[in-house]
Structures are given as C-alpha cells and as structure tokens.
Specification:
about 280 residues, alpha/beta, 9 helices
C-alpha cells in the first residue's frame, strides 16, 4: 500500500431510494445504496486524503439533484474535494446556465456527459456538443470522456477540435479485456495520448476483464500500454468504487497498481497517486 495518503480521482456515491439510476437494474451486484461510510470501510489500509465524485448516470432530470445530494454528503465527509457533474453539453453555449447552477450547488471541478451509451457514430462531434465542451475552458473545467473502446476515434477527434480544454479519459477507454481484444484499441489509445490536452484514469480495468477469473498477467499489458502512451505524469489513480466491487476489492486494486509501479521513484508514485489529480481537478 502507498506509504502516503492518496487522492482518488473517481468515486461514485448513490442511493436509489433518493434518485433514479435505471442502469443499476442491469447490475444487481452493486444496485444498493453506496455512501461514504461504505467507502471508508472498503478503503481498508489505504489512506485517502481527498476524492473526486463522478456523476453516476442518474436520470437526466436528476442531474442538479445529484449535485446537491453530493454537496450534502460533503458536509459530513470533507474528503469529497470535488464533483464531476453531468451537463447537457450538446446544448452548445446554452449549457452555461447549467454550469452556473451546478457551481452554485456543489464544488464543481469537472463535467461528464456520457458518450458510451450513444450508438450513433459521431454523436460527440455534432457542432453543439463541441461548442458546449469548448465552453468548459472558460470556466476552468475539464471534461471526462466516458466511452467504449469502439468510440476512441470519435473521442480523439473531439479532443483535437477542443485544444483549449483539458480532457480526462475514463477507464483507459474500456478495452474488451475479457475477449482478449488488443487492436484497434492499442493504436487508438496511442493516437489520443499523442494529444497533449488529455490525461487518463487507471480505473475500471478489471471490470472489463473476466470478473471471476481475471489475472494480473491478463490485465498488465493493458495498464502497461496506457502508462507507456501517456507517461505517469498524465495518469491518475482512481478506483471507480463501487463499480469495481464487481471484479475486485479496493485494497486489491491498489496492490495491483503497486506491482505496476515497482521500480518507480517516490516522486513518480506521488504524482500518480496524488499530485496529478490535484492538478487536473484543481483540488
């Protein structure tokens, strides 16, 4: 385990009794309520100094309710240092009213509009979407990219068209590890990493592997490739708790990352586990 306190760049809290999350019906293993006391228990021997809450794909009309709900949790859980909220960026510059409302509701540190659920190619390249994402730079907010691996080419073009925006690629773009897929994900990841305004979260990786039978040897090539493409100075530690519970434990994931970082300097480890998230999300 790290010998210093870490910053977790990707945590979800939710209570289906408070807000509606239709997607949870398809994953009964994590469907129940997951709140800060549960997270504190899960982290075990890992000391978490700060965390970033990331929107949980609640029903669209709940996006402001979700931000206010997390702000309420932060009153009792000071480690919630920032919120990545959902906003309808495809509205173009009209999304600014949402951003202002979200700023008033919670400690807003980023925006995520999920792309992974959109089947139509090019959805994130429509003019309104690009204009809405570009607006984030004026507010000093990064955009979290949540996609499937087949959408990496579109995501790369989005990043190219918004050079003034910082992008955070979630879950190394979800390669199909369980199916043993490597190409074209590996080349597409290298292409997006070549753009200087994007960083990546090392999280959600065992979730894309065989939940019951994944091995370190099976996932290591994917993590190693992501680190090689981005460099540790553009990789963020993240847990994706509690989605990670489908395939791993919190301490188990940290132990896996520690194995990946063997031989790294303390400065490199601190950058990955803490400093990069603090910089990107202005914590």
């Amino acid at each position: 385990m790290p010998e210093f306190a870490v910053v977790d760049a990707h945590v979800h809290f939710y209570d289906p009794a408070r807000l509606s999350y239709p997607w949870l019906d398809g994953v009964p293993g994590i469907k129940g309520r997951h709140l800060p006391p549960d997270y504190a228990e899960a982290t075990g021997a890992v000391t978490v100094e700060k965390l970033v809450f990331v929107e949980v794909d609640a029903e669209e009309h709940h996006r402001f309710d979700e931000a206010r709900f997390i702000a309420g949790l932060a009153a009792d859980e000071p480690r919630i240092a920032g919120v990545v909220a959902s906003a309808l960026v495809e509205r173009g510059r009209a999304v600014e009213e949402e951003i202002e409302a979200l700023k008033a509701a919670a400690p807003l540190r980023g925006i995520r509009r999920q792309i992974q659920n959109r089947a139509e190619p090019g959805w994130c390249l429509q003019p309104g979407f690009i204009d809405g994402v570009r607006l984030l730079a004026e507010h000093g907010l990064p955009f979290d990219i949540c996609i499937k691996n087949s959408q990496l080419a579109d995501a790369t073009e989005l990043v190219r068209r918004c050079p003034e925006v910082t992008f955070v690629l979630d879950h190394i773009a979800k390669p199909s590890i369980a199916a043993g897929e490597w190409a074209p994900w590996a080349d597409d990841l290298r292409a997006i990493a070549a753009l200087p305004n994007v960083v990546v979260k090392l999280a959600g990786i065992t979730t894309e592997a065989d939940h019951a039978a994944w091995t370190f040897e099976a996932i290591r090539p994917y993590i190693d490739h992501a680190v090689a493409c981005f460099g540790l100075d553009r990789c963020l530690f993240a847990s994706d708790w509690p989605v990670m519970n489908l395939s791993d434990s919190y301490t188990g994931w940290v132990a896996t990352l520690d194995r990946i970082l063997e031989g790294c300097s303390e400065a490199e480890r601190r950058a990955f586990y803490r400093d990069n998230a603090i910089r990107v999300y202005r914590l």
